Amino acid sequence: MKEIVLAGGCFWGVEAYLNLIPGVTHTKAVYANGITKNPTYEDVLTGQTKFVEAVYIEYNEKILSLQQLIEAYWKIIDPTLLNQQGPDMGEQYRTGIYYVDEDDLATIKISLSLEQKKYTKPIVTEIKPLENFFIAEEYHQQYLRKNPNGYCHINLSLYK
């Protein structure tokens, strides 16, 4: 299994969307690349922890390539918006691709270059190594599966 962390605004919709993709075997809502230990949702909302709401993903690369996964990810974000996706605003809602395997960086950069051709504004999505992450509280895990009418800024039908 391969792993990567993706951030695209509120993690509820991002996690629900990613779970629709064949080859994604496991996801967790997480707080990634921040500066404190064991942050809570309330801590992250202050903007002082530098954490981003993100989704940790394990995927089977025999079924799903990293390129395919990132292409699916680009469909659900506006990578030109800084610290905002949909109505969610704040540094914790920035977009990001946080890689675990240094060998993945070349694929990520190629995908970014191809995606940039679709926009006149620069893409501001962070591309960084995963420094740290903490699993979000249980009520955030698989939130939209537990709450089918819950808030989601993502059109879940985008994955086809």
TrEMBL record:
Active-site residues from the entry: 10
Family matches, as InterPro entries: Met_Sox_Rdtase_MsrA_dom (IPR002569), Met_Sox_Rdtase_MsrA_sf (IPR036509), MsrA_MetSO_reductase (IPR050162)
Record's catalysed reaction(s): L-methionyl-[protein] + [thioredoxin]-disulfide + H2O = L-methionyl-(S)-S-oxide-[protein] + [thioredoxin]-dithiol; [thioredoxin]-disulfide + L-methionine + H2O = L-methionine (S)-S-oxide + [thioredoxin]-dithiol
Cellular component aspect of the GO annotation: cytoplasm
Uppermost EC category: oxidoreductase
EC number: 1.8.4.11
The UniProt record lists the keyword DNA-binding: no
GO molecular function: L-methionine:thioredoxin-disulfide S-oxidoreductase activity; peptide-methionine (S)-S-oxide reductase activity
Domain Peptide methionine sulphoxide reductase MsrA per the UniProt entry, residue ranges: 3-153
Alphabetical keyword list: Oxidoreductase
Keyword Zinc among record annotations: no
One GO BP: cellular response to oxidative stress
Task performed by this protein: Has an important function as a repair enzyme for proteins that have been inactivated by oxidation. Catalyzes the reversible oxidation-reduction of methionine sulfoxide in proteins to methionine.
Family: Belongs to the MsrA Met sulfoxide reductase family.
Protein name: Peptide methionine sulfoxide reductase MsrA
Organism lineage string: Bacteria, Bacillati, Bacillota, Clostridia, Lachnospirales
Annotated gene: msrA
